[in-house]
Amino acid sequence: MATTDASTTGSCSSMPTSNRPDPNTSGGAMAGAAPTPEKLAACLSYLRAVRGSATQFFALLAQQGEGSENLMLFDVSTKKEEQADTETKIKTVLDDLMKNVKTLQCEVSSLSPIVGNSTQSNLDLLSLDPATDKQQLHHQLRQCYIWMDKVYNYSTMSHMLIGHSHLNRSQMPNPLSVSKRRRPPAISNNVNVPQQQVDALILSINKQFQDMMLTVSRPMGSNAIVQVTLGQLLRGVITLRGLLIEAVLIRGYNESFLDHQGREDIFKPSQLAVFQRVTDNASAAMLHFCSPYLADLSIRSFFTWLHSFSNLFTEPCTKCNCTVSNNSPPTWREFRTLLPYHQHCRP
Ligand SMILES: [Zn+2]
User: Fold this and answer.
1) What's the angle, vertex CA 120, arms to CA 114 and CA 124, rounded to 5?
2) How far is it, in rounded angstroms, from Cα 137 to Cα 146?
3) d(CA 194, ligand 1 centre) in Å
4) pLDDT for residue 231 is more than 80
5) Mean per-residue pLDDT of the chain
6) Residue 233 CA: distances (Å) to CA of 120, 164, 213, 268, 284
7) Closest Cα partner for 345 from 337, 328, 336?
8) Which keywords appear in this protein's UniProt record, sorted alphabetically (predicted)?
């Protein structure tokens, strides 16, 4: 019924008054009534009637403007008669328009307290869509809401159960643990660390190896330089930036560690090819052991690796079992096993 009303009023733009829907069948003024499809269709019909009246009103206004230009050529009496007739028509159409607007306002106000106040109302409106390809949307959306409610309920129950579970106190990694999940990475802490922390770490490493002596100095400010003396075999300069190793330089035991100004020389390479090669390998080890998240462990691992050079000239190569090959001792130490290898015998 509503569809037929809408179809018949669809062509009422020129005659809105005669095609207005019957108030007896559409409900008239029903304040607070439920928004049934019939009432919504009646509101749409009244809206079309308003649009038709407005179109007719503006069309008459436009005709009056065109007529006034043409009437300039005729006499004054004809002009006055035409103007009075046009004004009467405009007044009639305007009264009709105002009447339609009041009727539409009354109908809309009766629906406004209910329409669009909740999700359920919008869901019901979706079911009124006459398009055949959208008729399933109402059912699908309703099912979606039901499943969302279920998921919310189950997640709430799961959160309560896991939150009170004893698994939180075990060693098992708990992906739902807020403290572990939100813990920020400690990369920035490796650079700006207190000097006491660096000194304590170097001191503990110094105590770990009896034949390796570590000396900390800070000629360039807060960042430390560690001088390494390994037995009577070699000396090294380790440049630190916080707890990160920035540069490694290895020289022979008898080579000077001071520049011409009497300060630690951290740039001049060794004069001996053996220690130049050891420097290259130590730089590779520095990069290998570098770990931004475990800076303490990386420094300890590096010095442990460097300490394995204490038998540089005595331990034969693991592969060729020769102490000297190509005029060089085994200058490579495997990172994990610390076994000596020649450069060309590396696994
Ligand atoms: Zn070898």
Assistant:
1) 80
2) 14
3) 43
4) yes
5) 78
6) 85, 60, 12, 18, 20
7) 328
8) Nucleus, Transcription, Transcription regulation
Domain ranges of the chain: 2-115, 191-312
Report how far ligand 1's centroid is from the alpha carbon of 342 (Å).
4
Contacts of 190 (CB under 8 A, 6+ apart): 242, 243, 244, 292, 295
Cα–ligand 1 centroid distance for 158 (angstroms): 61
Of 29-33, 194-198, 334-338, minimum mean pLDDT range = 29-33
Tokens representing 111?
A: 């629906």
Q: Please give the helix or strand (H or E) that residue 252 lies within, else none.
A: strand 244-252
> What are residue 24's phi and psi, to 5 degrees?
-70, -35
Please give the pLDDT value at position 274.
Answer: 94
What is the CA(332)–ligand 1 centre distance, in A? 10
Please tell me whether the overall predicted TM-score, pTM, comes out greater than 0.85 for this model. Answer: no
- Is the pLDDT at 53 greater than 80? The verdict is yes
Q: How far is residue 129 CA from its own chain's centroid?
A: 37
Residue tagged 């000194």 (tokens): 199
- Measured CA to CA in angstroms, residue 262 lies from 250, 257, 259, 291, 311 at distances of 19, 9, 5, 34, 31
Distance 275 CA to ligand 1 centre (A): 17
**Whether 193 contacts 184, CB under 8 Å:** no
Tell how far the Cα of 341 is from the centroid of ligand 1, in angstroms.
Answer: 5
- The predicted model gives 248-263 an average pLDDT of 85
Q: What are phi and psi of 330, to 5 degrees?
A: -70, 100
Q: CA nearest 213: which of 233, 185, 192, 241?
A: 233
305 token code pair:
């690796």
Query: CB within 8 A of 193, min separation 6: which ones?
Result: 242, 243
Least confident of 42-56, 72-86, 100-114, 142-156: 72-86
Report how far residue 95's alpha carbon sits from residue 86's, in angstroms, rounded to the nearest whole number: 14
Task: Give me Rg for the CA atoms of the chain.
Answer: 46
Residues in contact with 141: Cβ distance below 8 Å, sequence separation at least 6, in sequence order: 123, 126
